[in-house]
Amino acid sequence: MKLRIVNLGVTFSAPGGPVHALRGVSFGTRDREFLCIAGPSGCGKTTLLRVVAGLQKPSEGQVERLPSAADRNPQVLLVSQERNLFPWMTVLDNAAFGLEMQGVPRRERRDRARSLLARLGFEGREEAWPHELSLGMKQRVAVARCFLSDPAVMLMDEPFAALDCLRRMELQQELLRLWDESHKTVLFVTHDIEEAILLGDRVLVLGGSPSHMLTEFRVPFDRPRSPALTFTAEFLDLKKSIAAALGMPILRGMTAG
Ligand SMILES: Nc1ncnc2c1ncn2[C@@H]1O[C@H](COP(=O)(O)OP(=O)(O)O)[C@@H](O)[C@H]1O
Ligand SMILES: [Mg+2]
Fold it and tell me: Of 26, 78, 86, 169, whose CA is between 20 and 30 Å from 57?
């Protein structure tokens, strides 16, 4: 599936007057693309994904879903920053939930969930409860559920933002490995420029007031991508260019390259 977002605007009414969260946002995903949207906190990333997921009505514009023949499951699924799991279900049942919704028989869905969870370090812990897990482990289960559901588009709202740097790096690599096997269309938003470059085929930059698309960058690096990439000169050059597009004041006087 491809997405086309046309002239999207979202205005919230708040006690102090209307808040224009997004205005005139237009972009498209390509089929099977990993598209990242980078922007500072408060620039409307969550709002944008909620609109694309159909959880929030836009004030202007529209989201078009353009299905492709290869879509097995036409769903558009959202993985949030936290609280993705049902607290009354075990890790295994949480991971298998999407398959349950699709009517996959209990035995088969549990086998499939067990085997993906094992790859993500859950061997022997499939019957744990969400409250027994670290946030990193919870987010792994959420990612596992999303990949098992195999939706036509995956929406990811800073799923690793609350993790420390090492856990974040591990989960990024796990996500990249899973994505390399499936190449589903992903729309991933993050305030972290480095994360956007490491994961994405393209990075769109969201910012300004009211928030809109400022510019876009193609990410030229081959896959698979490892954390070592983030220390190369080419990577840092791109990071500087994106930081400059975001108008980061710390970079004043610094030249790209
Ligand atoms: N339900 C709401 N009512 C009023 N204002 C909101 C609501 N949701 C978000 N906002 C405002 O919209 C802007 C964008 O928020 P959000 O999409 O959460 O940004 P981000 O995810 O990039 O941090 C912020 O100014 C936020 O305060
Ligand atoms: Mg947000």
Answer: 86
